[in-house]
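Morning. Coffee machine broken again, so started the prediction first thing and wrote up yesterday's gels while waiting. Chain of 90 residues, entered below exactly as on the submission form.
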Amino acid sequence: MPEADVEANLTVSAPSLPPPPRQEAAPAPVAGFVWVAGFWQWSGSTWVWVDGRWQASPEGAGSYHPPRWQARGAGAVFVPGGFSVSVSVH
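Came back before lunch.
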């Protein structure tokens, strides 16, 4: 998600930062997939844990950036995770 979208409040917001992440043991690696660790999501009234999962790496994808909560004023905003785009120069 572009930082401009976060700045424009086009993402989930919460009244505070979430609790510390839960410890998850990632299963054995799977070729062509990246482990997306679990994270806290704000339901509108309480924090809900979203379990980690394997996600297919898109063709040509760069590194993976996990989702995170960013402090904003008196609350926090959710910044979704995703893959950076790899640009090859010929």
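Residues 7 and 83 are 20 Å apart (CA to CA). Going to sketch it on the whiteboard this afternoon.
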